Structure formats: structure tokens, C-alpha cells
């Protein structure tokens, strides 16, 4: 997570230029789901695909308190505490809180950058737009490099097509990686169909996807098996998001623990969760430390409870 890169030098150069369980039931992955887990009192880890990084099972998302204006002190306490508890992956985005999330995280990165695999995103699909956004993200995050840079919310086929074109953000990402400003290239979205198409189109190293028991904000869930089949085949690090539906699924009678365990029972590397209260962070870390792989029958029972 350390890299010797001069951000100003780089930027001066660069700116000039049912469904969803068939894959599990087919066998193979379930028996390897907790590979890399450590002792119960420590944070379990999994391989983040072909990045070579071992990521904490529970990771910190950049929304909730971390993106709210006027909550800086609360956000900093949560970030520091997460790192103290063994969380080593933080995901944010240029758009979260109009930059507030990156700014809060940057305050901690100034002191603890080497403890974190840091991920952020560009929502601009053009070369020039992405080059402008990455400069702002680096400044806010107070770092010279980003471990994982991701196309933000690619949810339509025409967006995948746009990334194929000359002058797209994809070329910007490739140049940033060549220069060492970013370490790895990823993509995010809510549609398992579009993300599966994107993984077939380009060797992304990571994919961030919505994954929860009620299919809240999950588009094209019938393509989930195909997505996981491609991701597993190509050693893509899969990151689960919205595992609790922004808290709404807990209000439907599920516990945070079982929701986290449900999503982590898929072939994912980690699950990111936005935190509102310190107690929630402590609870989620405890659940990750005590993770037990759910059987296909247990996962099916949860889906029946969710009436899907």
C-alpha cells in the first residue's frame, strides 16, 4: 500500500495529454469461502482477486456519517476506530457528499495512509473529465496514489460501449496505472448483467456490486450467477455493497449480523458498509470476526423470509 509517486509531477504530464444461487449450488466455491480467515479475535481476510492484497472481511464505506457535512469529528473517530479494529479497506467516491467523504478520509490518510487499501471512483466516462476528477480526489485524500480507482455506477450497456471508445475514461485509468498514480482498475454498478458484460469486455481487477437478501437496488438479479462465474474465472476481486439496504433491510426484521453473513457467503472478497454510529461499527466488526459460511439451505431460508 505504499508507492513512491509524485502527484504534481504526474498531473503536470498527464493533463497535457432463485436466481443468484445456482453458481453456489454448482459446487466448488463454498468450501473455500473462509480461506485466509484468522483467529476469531482477529479480522478475517480474503484475497482481493488478482490484486494480491488480502482484504479485511468487513470494510468501511464512504457514505453515512463519512459523507455528511458538519460531522467531521464523528467521521474521524469512526475511521480511526475502524483501522484500530483491523479494517484495512476504505471505499469512497468523488461524488459522496460532494467531496466531503474524501476530505474526511484524507484527514486520517495524512497520518495512517500505509494501513489502508484506498478505493475511490470517477463518475466521468471521458478521459479529460477523469483526469480532472483524479486530481481533486488525490488532493482531498491527501495522498499521491490510489490503490483502486473505479468507474462509478456503470449501469447501462451504452456506458460500457462508451468506455470502449478512444478518449474514454478507460484510457485515463490505464495511463494513471502506468504512471503509478493508481494501483488497480475497477468498475461499480447495481446491474449484474451490465457488470458481467463489462468483465467480459475488459480485464477489470475488481467489481463493486449491490448484494443483499431482498435484492434492494439489485438490477438484473437473474444474471448474478453469470456475474460470479466470470468474476471467479478471471480472479476479479468482488466487493459487496448495500448488504443492509442502507439500513432498510434491518427494519424488515433481519439482523445486521445475518445480513452481513448472507452477503459474505457469496464469492466476494469483502463487504463495505457505511457507518452511522460507533456501536454499529463495533457490531459489524464483531460479526465479521465471527463469520460462519452459510449453507445454500440457510441462504434459501433467508430469501424465503424476504419473500423473493
What would you say this structure looks like, in words?
The strands form two sheets. Strands 3-4-5-6-7-8-9-10 form an eight-stranded parallel barrel, surrounded by six helices. A two-stranded antiparallel sheet has the order 1-2. It starts with 6 loop residues before the first helix and ends with a helix. Helix content is 40%, strand content 15%. Helix 3 packs parallel to helix 11 (278-289) and helix 4 (100-112) crosses helix 5 (127-141). The longest helix has 15 residues, at 127-141. It has helices at residues 7-14, 22-25, 72-84, 100-112, 127-141, 157-164, 169-178, 192-201, 224-233, 256-264, 278-289, 296-305, and strands at 45-47, 54-56, 58-61, 89-91, 117-122, 146-151, 182-189, 206-210, 237-241, 270-273. The protein is built from twelve helices and ten strands. The protein has 308 residues and is of the alpha/beta class. Mean pLDDT is 91; it is low at 7-17 and 26-40. It has one domain (7-25, 45-275): NADP-dependent oxidoreductase domain (TIM Barrel), CATH 3.20.20.
CATH class: Alpha Beta
Order of helices and strands: HHEEEHEHEHEHHEHEHEHEHH
* CATH homologous superfamily placement: NADP-dependent oxidoreductase domain
- Total beta strands: 10
Number of helices: 12
Instruction: Quote the distance from N terminus to C terminus.
Output: 41 Å
Amino acid at each position: 500500500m505504499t508507492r513512491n509517486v509524485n502527484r504534481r509531477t504526474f498531473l503536470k504530464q498527464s493533463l497535457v495529454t432463485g436466481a443468484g444461487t445456482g453458481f453456489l449450488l454448482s459446487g466448488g466455491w463454498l468450501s473455500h469461502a473462509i480461506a485466509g480467515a484468522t483467529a476469531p479475535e482477529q479480522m478475517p481476510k480474503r484475497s482481493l482477486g488478482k490484486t494480491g492484497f488480502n482484504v479485511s472481511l468487513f470494510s468501511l464505506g464512504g457514505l453515512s456519517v463519512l459523507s455528511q457535512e458538519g460531522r467531521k469529528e464523528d467521521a474521524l473517530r469512526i475511521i480511526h476506530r475502524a483501522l484500530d479494529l483491523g479494517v484495512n479497506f476504505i471505499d469512497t467516491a468523488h461524488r459522496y457528499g460532494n467531496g466531503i467523504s474524501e476530505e474526511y478520509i484524507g484527514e486520517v490518510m495524512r497520518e495512517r495512509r500505509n494501513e489502508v487499501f484506498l478505493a475511490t471512483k470517477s463518475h466521468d466516462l471521458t478521459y479529460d473529465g477523469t483526469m480532472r476528477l483524479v486530481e481533486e480526489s488525490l488532493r482531498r485524500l491527501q495522498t499521491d496514489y490510489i490503490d483502486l480507482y473505479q468507474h462509478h455506477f456503470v449501469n447501462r450497456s451504452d456506458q460500457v460501449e462508451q468506455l470502449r471508445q478512444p478518449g474514454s475514461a478507460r484510457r485515463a485509468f490505464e495511463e494513471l496505472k502506468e504512471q503509478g498514480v493508481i494501483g488497480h482498475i475497477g468498475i461499480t454498478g447495481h446491474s449484474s448483467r451490465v457488470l458481467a458484460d463489462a468483465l467480459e469486455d475488459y480485464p477489470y481487477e475488481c467489481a463493486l456490486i449491490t448484494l443483499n437478501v431482498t435484492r434492494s437496488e439489485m438490477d438484473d438479479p437473474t444474471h448474478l450467477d453469470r456475474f460470479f462465474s466470470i468474476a471467479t474465472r478471471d480472479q476479479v476481486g468482488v466487493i459487496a455493497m448495500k448488504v443492509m439496504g442502507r439500513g432498510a433491510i434491518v427494519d424488515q426484521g433481519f439482523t445486521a449480523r445475518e445480513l452481513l453473513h448472507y452477503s459474505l457467503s457469496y464469492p466476494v472478497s469483502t463487504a463495505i458498509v457505511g457507518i452511522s454510529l460507533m456501536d454499529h461499527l463495533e457490531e459489524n466488526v464483531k460479526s465479521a470476526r465471527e463469520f460462519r459460511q452459510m449453507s445454500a439451505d440457510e441462504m434459501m431460508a433467508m430469501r424465503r423470509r424476504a419473500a423473493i
